[in-house]
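Take a look at this chain, tokens included, and explain the fold to me:
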Amino acid sequence: MSENTRATGWIAGFVLHVLTGVLAVLAHYSLMWVALSAGMPPVMASSAGFSAGALVRFLLSYTRVFVPTIGVPSALLRFVAALAGQMLANAALLALFIRLELNLWLAQVLVTVLLTVGNYLVYRLWVFR
């Protein structure tokens, strides 16, 4: 496989990752908004939303973005392990930005952007490898 073909594959995969990420973020932010409206604390509400987004992300990543070389059970275990790290990073960064007095939604968007590239690399190189 040529370097150009390999680079194109990485770029196309990242674009699909971002597009499916938009759907995952919609699930995350929608549930977060509902939870906040019900009186849940911000970091807890974000974590609940993160879980909804994770389900969307796994289903789309496994079936549409990556070409898994492992079965669903193995990929799911790796995905859950990666998610644990991502959820902790999401909560820690969000808590930090809130302490820095950033607007909650601006802080959440910044966290999402910061985690996007790292998430893609973890998924491509380990979870769905």
